UniProtKB/TrEMBL annotation:
Keywords: Cell membrane, Membrane, Transmembrane, Transmembrane helix, Transport. Residues 3-420 form the Major facilitator superfamily (MFS) profile domain. This is MFS transporter. Its main location: membrane. The chain crosses the membrane at residues 7-30, 36-61, 68-90, 96-124, 136-156, 162-181, 219-240, 252-273, 280-301, 307-329, 341-361, 394-415. It is found in: Cell membrane. PANTHER family: MACROLIDE-EFFLUX PROTEIN, MAJOR FACILITATOR SUPERFAMILY (MFS) PROFILE DOMAIN-CONTAINING PROTEIN. It is a multi-pass membrane protein. InterPro entries: MFS, MFS_dom, MFS_trans_sf. Pfam families: MFS_1 (PF07690).
Length: 432
């Protein structure tokens, strides 16, 4: 675990720096343009490359040394970041420069994340994969908790140029940790025979990742299940901030978001130290069900204490859900195929995340909000519980999203290949 912990620390520092830059650039673009569309395009430019580049990135990760893949990714992202800092400092920055830099960073993130995740399988003993996954979730939870607060403070002191240069410095921390270690070669790990997949064509190698997943009903079911529920979760995430602001102040919103962040950090710390359940799939089902129930309660009741408790429990479950999902994939996919398989997951997940971003606004404005403003039967009946108006429209979509999440989980549980994926599909890595 010592090598993994060193790499994890470097990645944690780098992720915090990148999150500060993302936060600062988002505020800068919105203040500069006053356009929500321009602000949203930052998210789009950060998501599209993951959809387009991930299949090729997965092949490269499996072909290359994964340490060098991570070094290349961090180096190129650092250069794009410092270019933006120089453009801002010389007052030559244009909005399209931000989109281009975000696209470049996202492109290399498509290479870095599968390499990082697949390398973890080589570095960490099988029995400690849950702890490693918990640490990776902890990095994300910690970043989400401190970045908005720290970013707001730094914007007022060192300004956006200083934040971007700080981000550039964090890349060096990541690179130093990567240069200090060595990764095991893939061929030194005993796996099932996957060399039957031809390497004569990049297209063949791209499709081999898809073929491995589709040939195993349990993994395919897990992929579909996670993508479906993440789609619902992302709709909830997009609408959560305007929903809370429709019933309370920005200060209360900040407190609620911070408490949610504390829930994520607490859960991640628990997994990192304890290691998690032996039956990962049941933990995943249970906390997905809890997440849907929390969203449902937030739609039904707008009491601030209940809303705060719901977001705490929802956030507490997320690291467990994603951690259990990650470990199952690491145990069931051979190391020499993990780059491709994880890239397929990233591509499909990013596609549906982008779809959730795009449909959330129209769903709210064109369907749910009119239903709760007009004298429709829904407004007359459900309106007695959740009220009417804009806030009630968001409450209704939360109720629907929560019910869909729980229903999807119940249906998935009834599918034996998914429910029994840990037992029926053999592990492909030995216990060290």
């Amino acid at each position: 675990m010592s090598v993994f912990i060193l790499i994890w620390f470097g990645q944690l520092v780098s992720i915090i720096g990148s999150s500060l830059t993302d936060f600062a650039l988002g505020i800068w673009v919105y203040q500069r343009t006053g356009s929500i569309t321009q602000f949203t395009l930052i998210t789009v430019s950060g998501t599209l490359p993951l959809i387009v580049v991930s299949p090729l990135a997965g092949v490269l990760v499996d072909r290359w040394n994964r340490r060098w893949a991570m070094i290349l990714s961090d180096s190129c992202a650092a250069l794009a970041t410092v270019a933006i800092a120089l453009l801002i400092a010389t007052n030559r920055i244009e909005i399209w420069h931000i989109y281009l830099a975000t696209t470049i960073c996202s492109t290399f993130c498509a290479l870095q994340w599968p390499a990082y995740t697949a390398a973890t399988t080589l570095l960490v003993p099988k029995q400690h994969l849950s702890r490693a996954s918990g640490m990776m979730q902890l990095a994300g939870s910690t970043t989400q908790l401190i970045s908005p607060v720290l970013g707001g403070v730094l914007l007022g002191t060192i300004h956006i140029e200083g934040i971007i240069l700080l981000d550039f410095a964090t890349f060096f921390v990541s690179l130093i940790t990567l240069f200090l270690v060595r990764f095991p070669e893939i061929n030194t790990v005993k796996t099932s025979d996957t060399k039957q997949v031809g390497r004569s064509s990049i297209l063949q190698e791209i499709t081999s990742g898809c073929a491995y997943i589709t040939a195993r009903e349990g993994l395919l079911g897990l992929l579909i299940f996670m993508v479906a529920n993440n789609f619902f979760f992302n709709i909830f995430n997009v609408l959560f901030t305007p929903f809370v602001l429709s019933i309370t102040s920005t200060n209360v919103l900040g407190i609620i978001v911070s408490i949610g962040g504390i829930g994520s950090v607490a859960s991640s710390l628990l997994i990192s130290t304890w290691g998690g359940s032996q039956q990962l799939i049941y933990s995943l089902f249970g906390f997905q069900l809890l997440g849907g129930l929390c969203i449902l309660f937030m739609g039904l009741y707008t009491s601030i204490p209940l809303l705060t408790l719901s977001i705490f429990l929802f956030s507490f479950g997320l690291p467990i859900i994603y951690g259990c999902n990650q470990v199952i994939w690491q145990r069931k996919v051979p190391p020499d195929l993990q780059g491709r398989a994880f890239a397929v997951r990233s591509m499909i997940g990013s596609l549906f995340r982008l779809l959730a971003y795009l449909v959330s606004g129209p769903l709210m404005e064109k369907i749910f909000q009119p239903l709760m403003i007009s004298n429709s039967p829904i407004a007359v009946s459900i309106g007695k519980i959740i009220g009417t108006g804009t806030q009630a429209g968001m409450s209704l979509i939360f109720i629907v999203v929560g019910c869909c999440t729980m229903l999807t989980t119940i249906v998935a549980y009834q599918y034996p290949p998914l429910r029994l994926v840990e037992d029926e599909l053999p592990d492909v890595i030995p216990t060290n």
